[in-house]
Design goal:
By secondary structure, the chain is mainly alpha-helical. It is 54% helix and 6% strand. It has a two-stranded antiparallel sheet. The chain has a two-stranded antiparallel ribbon with strand order 2-5. Strands 3-4 form a two-stranded antiparallel ribbon.
Length: 192
């Protein structure tokens, strides 16, 4: 390549051909930095409230799972027709696809404990936040199904199950309100 045919450096020190159509004259355009989306800081009450509810739900679910596994009758629940834990926990509606719903409750609360730790709330990715909210939505859907079964199919209510239902609904409310009330943290970091 001869010296005459080589591109001449521009004022910015970059080589370029100033006479070509479609090419800007002067320095090449810079790519603007893109701001990293800020992480949301959950309200201070979100972590202890959600973890507390998960622990209570796990404890009651563990108790119900033990009752289901051992077929014992120490539920400490009155038996008066409308309230009968034994009738509810031994009915055909107490299993879903052959799995006792108390076991599903155990799995649900174990998973939710992992999603409600401080690290998951503060450093979790969007996937973790969506899983947390989605998990509580699934939990509430299951609660609605089980309450329907208790009221219209079994004809009795289990007080221990009702504790799990209330905890699941409260957990949904905590996660939803924490997500709505989360404040974005100042994002001073830029990504190029």
């Amino acid at each position: 390549m001869s010296a005459a045919s080589r591109p001449k450096p521009s004022r910015s020190g970059r080589s370029g051909r100033s006479g070509q159509p479609g090419r800007p004259v002067g320095p090449e355009p810079r790519i603007a930095p893109v701001a990293v989306p800020p992480r949301a800081t959950p309200p201070r009450w979100a972590v202890p409230a959600s973890l507390g509810l998960c622990v209570v739900g796990l404890g009651v679910s563990a108790f119900l799972a033990y009752e289901s596994a051992t077929a014992s009758v120490i539920l400490a629940c009155p038996v008066n027709g409308a309230i009968d834990c034994g009738k509810v926990t031994t009915s055909a509606w107490s299993k879903l696809f052959g799995i006792p719903v108390s076991y599903l409750g155990l799995l649900f609360f174990i998973g939710m404990i992992a999603l409600c730790t401080k690290a998951a709330w503060t450093r979790g990715s969007a996937l973790v936040h969506n899983l947390r909210l989605g998990g509580t939505v699934v939990g509430v859907a299951m609660v609605l199904y089980l309450v329907w079964a208790e009221l219209f199919r079994i004809g009795a209510i289990c007080l221990w199950c009702t504790v799990v239902h209330v905890v699941s609904f409260a957990l949904f409310c905590v996660v939803l309100f924490a997500r709505v009330l989360a404040e974005p943290t100042p994002a001073a970091t830029l990504r190029r």
